[in-house]
Write a structure and sequence with these properties.
By secondary structure, the protein is mainly α. Among the domains are: 31 residues, no CATH class; 63 residues. The protein is 46% helix and 4% strand. It is built from nine helices and two strands, in the order αααααββαααα. A two-stranded antiparallel sheet has the order 1-2. α7 packs across α8. The longest helix is centred in the last third of the chain and has 13 residues. The protein is flat and about 105 Å long. The two termini are 46 Å apart. 5% of the residues are buried. InterPro entries: NDUFAF4. It holds the Pfam family UPF0240. This is NADH dehydrogenase [ubiquinone] 1 alpha subcomplex assembly factor 4. Binds calmodulin. Interacts with NDUFAF3.
């Protein structure tokens, strides 16, 4: 609301205000400081000579200045290789989902993709005798403890359709 109101005031009588600004006389510029004019220095060679003259007293003082810098001794850490990876992370191919190019192709061992997680949870729910925790751990390269907690705490959604008679009762 505020934007509309400010736009009305901003665009009110724009053409006449622009003509008024354009028709005004240009203000005269402020006078420049006399030392800022380079043409005045060209007429005075003594000033130019003073600028380029070397002062022997300052030169000798400058030669007496001596700066010595030393780097602190380098300390080698005993466990210097802690941050370097010991080995490359092993990856395994995923059981591809239905999205094709958008699916994740490789997953590190010990982890699963979302599609795989939903698939194994659904398989375990439909056929718990076939898809046991041990078989899932072996199939997806997971630890048995993690698979047991996954099966215990995560349950896939189940769609239930109620007959029309019970819908009226609900």
């Amino acid at each position: 609301m505020g934007g509309r109101l400010t736009r009305v005031f901003r665009t009110f009588n724009v053409e006449s205000r622009a003509r008024r600004e354009i028709s005004k006389e240009k203000p005269t510029p402020a006078p420049r400081h006399r030392t800022s004019r380079l043409d005045e220095l060209a007429g005075h060679p003594e000033i130019k000579e003073e600028v380029y003259r070397k002062d022997d007293r300052f030169l000798t003082l400058l030669k007496d200045v001596y700066v010595e810098s030393r780097d602190p001794p380098v300390r080698v850490k005993v466990g210097g290789g802690e941050h370097l990876p010991c080995k490359l992370e092993e990856k395994r191919l995923t059981k591809l989902g239905h999205l094709g190019d958008q699916d994740v192709k490789e997953v590190p061992k010990g982890k699963i993709s979302i599609v795989e997680a939903l698939t194994l949870l659904n398989n375990h729910k439909l056929h718990p005798q076939i898809w046991t925790a041990e078989k899932i751990a072996m199939e997806y390269s997971l630890e048995l403890k993690e698979v047991n907690s996954l099966l215990e705490f995560f349950i896939p959604f189940a769609v239930q359709e109620f007959p029309k008679e019970t819908k009226k009762a609900i």
